[in-house]
């Protein structure tokens, strides 16, 4: 079952559609020869019916005009619409038109009953029509006898209309106007008069107060409350009297007045319990709010401290995490070398690679380093051996310099092999080490394209010589994880000796062919001892 609000919305939208369509064309289903349009019946209004006391004045307002955005009385009159009233009295089956008389009169969208009688109870229909459209809606009127009106106590005057609500601040003032007074003034031949009285309920008895004191006075048709007191709350009744065509007519309305405390008026409390001079024993109780505040403060300080520690020591924390939880790539692949170093030959960078970079990586950090000029076998092809060394390495360390990767050089081959291996998804990663500042325009095209995806570690001269400097920490982050145990050290030492012997054997073979056999080759054990 739909709510009254939904029914009212449907009623308004349907009225709007009928007003727009019906005013432009004849009603649906009517022949063009008919002069009277089909009248759309909206049934009975969903709003509450109207109640009037017998012997008092009352009126009915046509529900079609309850929404001025759909029907406005002035605009409908301009469009040629005429408002007709009909009624279906109790016990009758046929509607009868209402003709104006001294008792029943029409005023715009209202039908006045001056006064109402018990025979007026029934259903009333208001019809709005012109030559092309017609709409009608019904409402119900109930004329109550005085003993049928709902009252709180018997001494209250009967009122058919619900009481209006009014709030007045204590110690403040307000003016009360009788409801519907302006409507009665339009129908009166003269100025209406109003009688006010206040009924206080006290022990189921009614007391009527005249308004002659300084706090409440009647000014003309209004009741003026100068100083609102708590005792002035309750029901206020006003009876409107007016003359029309030689008859004295009246109706009564009620207002329920409630006193409220304004925000600027302070009410002093009256302490009832405990009484004065009464002593209580209390125990201190910890306040959860203090503990909560301290906990939140400590948490905030810890979070700030952790943020500062991470911001300052993020490299150390990352290296510590890798040493504990990192995976040693030597156990997951078949690569032979950890690092392959690519650099420009016959330059200052070559001395940096051979004396500093290689020494720290091999002797201090325990990485296996591959340098082409040192580890390549004689008689091989440069291209094949370079590609083989790069493929057998886990990292390609590129020392960037102004003369690096000139067109057609071996360093360019090493760089392309490393970038291709990295792009194919292998385990090879390319690391850039900037020994000296180099303008980006001086980089080769392959290096400029891959710079976005490559890590760049900058050498800062004397500041980077210490093993605890940022350069070596940053480089260790990019290099494979190396966790060396005692067994691994012995195995690595044996592998290093074996590699040295293979190099010496290769050099011995080369020197034998040229007749240049050195004393070092004659005693390889001495070389091993020196290397150890």
UniProtKB/TrEMBL annotation:
Protein's GO biological process: signal transduction
GO CC entries: membrane
UniProtKB keywords: Disulfide bond, Glycoprotein, Hydrolase, Immunoglobulin domain, Membrane, NAD, Receptor, Repeat, Signal, Transmembrane, Transmembrane helix
Keyword Signal (UniProt): yes
Organism from which the protein derives: Stegastes partitus (bicolor damselfish)
Domain Ig-like: residue ranges: 26-142, 157-256
Domain called TIR: residue spans: 335-479
Membrane-spanning intervals of the chain: 296-321
Topology within the bilayer: Single-pass type I membrane protein
InterPro entries documented for this protein: Ig-like_dom (IPR007110), Ig-like_dom_sf (IPR036179), Ig-like_fold (IPR013783), Ig_sub (IPR003599), IL-1_rcpt_fam (IPR015621), IL-1RAcP-like_ig (IPR041416), TIR_dom (IPR000157), Toll_tir_struct_dom_sf (IPR035897)
PANTHER family documented for this protein: INTERLEUKIN-1 RECEPTOR ACCESSORY PROTEIN (PTHR11890:SF20), INTERLEUKIN-1 RECEPTOR FAMILY MEMBER (PTHR11890)
Protein name: Interleukin-1 receptor accessory protein
Signal peptide: 1-26
Molecular function terms, GO-annotated: hydrolase activity
Family the UniProt entry places it in: Belongs to the interleukin-1 receptor family.
Cellular compartment(s): Membrane
Any Pfam family hit: TIR
Top-level lineage group: Eukaryota
